[in-house]
Specification:
Order of helices and strands: HHH
Number of helices: 3
Structural class: mainly alpha
Radius of gyration: 57 Å
Number of strands: 0
Helix content: over 70%
Strand content: under 5%
Shape: elongated
């Protein structure tokens, strides 16, 4: 037998086993359904025919628990409503108080600033501003003058070296002659 034949036989066998399993499952389901219907009918008949006596204590406990749950629910709802209302009231009171205080503070600050501005002496303020401007300008020019002086000294030093170099060169070339340079 070839491999394809074995695979085909094995596949066919598995299909037959699957069909048998499905058939068995349907059969068991039908049997269980019939059994359940019989049991339901029997239980319904028993419950209608048999009087059940529930003790008064059990009923009282059940009523008590139900009343407690309902009371707790009502209390929780009332507390949540009161808390929400209190938050709203506090928020509105705080907002109005803050608004009133802001207006009062704003008026006081405005009055204080106006009073202090009115006390400022214009001439003295102008003198202070002019003096500070002079100081800043002088400091700025001092820095610039220092830079210019440093550049000038550096250039002067370079010029002196150049003249010395020229003098040495002339002195070497004219041994007998005196060359004199003056810097003014």
């Amino acid at each position: 037998m070839s491999k394809i034949d074995c695979d085909w036989i094995f596949g066919f066998g598995m299909m037959v086993a699957g069909l048998i399993g499905v058939g068995y499952g349907l059969g068991v389901h039908c049997k269980m359904k019939k059994l359940c219907e019989k049991l339901d009918t029997t239980i319904d008949d028993l419950s209608n025919d048999v009087p059940i006596d529930i003790p008064k204590e059990v009923i009282d406990q059940a009523v008590e628990r139900a009343a407690e749950r309902r009371a707790r629910y009502a209390v929780d709802n009332a507390a949540a409503d009161i808390i929400s209302k209190m938050k709203s009231d506090i928020h509105s009171e705080v907002s109005s108080a803050v608004s009133d205080e802001r207006k009062k503070i704003s008026e006081k600050v405005t009055d204080t600033i106006a009073e202090r501005v009115s006390k400022i002496d214009e001439d003295e303020l102008r003198k202070d501003v002019v003096n500070k401007a002079k100081e800043q300008i002088a400091a700025k020019f001092d820095n610039k003058l220092d830079d210019i002086l440093a550049d000038f000294n550096s250039n002067l030093s370079n010029v002196s070296r150049i003249y010395r170099s020229i003098a040495q060169t002339i002195a070497v070339t004219q041994n007998a002659r005196d060359v004199m340079f003056k810097m003014v």
